[in-house]
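Next comes this protein.

***
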Amino acid sequence: MLRNFIMLLTAVLVFSSCTTIKFETPQPKDVEALIEFPADVTGTYMDADNVALSVTKTSFKYGNKKSPVYLSKTLSPGQTVLKKYNDDYVVSIKDKSAWEVFTFTYNDKGLKAYYMDVEDSTINETVAKVKAVVPLKEVKDTEGKLDYYTANPSKAEFDKLLKGKVFSKVIVFRKVK
């Protein structure tokens, strides 16, 4: 489980060693951003490796500065955006030029976070699934090599990505308080 979340963090924070799929805008389009997490979502969660995820009204933190995984974000327009879409919550995190996106669902027992599988062994399959729904633009690094793809789906296309299970990697967190 920790390996899966490290892959998410790599996609969100590092961007340099693997090809990822990013978005041109926070997702889904034409859905109003929330200014805080719902009260039912706030609390402390643990993953399978007993690494804590803390969710407050306006921020979340995974791990700590001494752990191998650490991510701390505050909801902020233009930087970290939360939206409710159908039964999912969608978090969009801006890097220098595009948005990383993951979704989550929750119930009284815990939270499940979903993200795109961008491991080297599955990236081609993931790219094909996305291209079947929405065109992708290639973004190259300074050496002219493919750095990442960007997508700009409509709300309906984003819905197809969700239903097509493009966000297929799952991390399960159990609520502890």
Summary: The chain has one domain: 2-175. The two ends are 21 Å apart (CA to CA). Residues 2-175 form one domain.
